[in-house]
């Protein structure tokens, strides 16, 4: 997967904390071993910190691309005048 596609997907996905909360509600009703292991993986503070860092990086990158496009657009219109 190219970096550009990864950054777009990472910026769009919901935080891992939301997945952990949803899985927590599921395992309250039934203690399915698979769901418990998914919950433990998503509730891990290190996994959540990594997810937050990746989404933050991707968001910063996409905002930078937008700023550069706007700046380039303004530079082109300034040259045409």
In short:
Helices cover 88% and strands 0% of the residues. The chain is mostly helical and 81 residues long.
Layout of secondary structure:
Layout (H helix, E strand, L loop, with lengths): L2 H10 L3 H14 L3 H11 L1 H36 L1
Walk me through the structure.
With 81 residues, this protein is mainly alpha-helical. Helix content is 88%, strand content 0%. It is built from four helices and no strands. It has helices at 3-12, 16-29, 33-43, 45-80. α1 (3-12) packs across α4 (45-80) and α2 runs antiparallel to α3 (33-43). The longest helix has 36 residues, at 45-80. It is rod-shaped. It starts with a helix and ends with a helix. The model has no long low-confidence stretch (mean pLDDT 86).
The separation of the N and C termini measures 41 Å
| Element-by-element helix/strand order | HHHH
Strand content: under 5%
Radius of gyration: 19 Å
Key attributes of the depicted protein:
81 residues; mainly alpha; 4 helices; 88% helix; rod-shaped
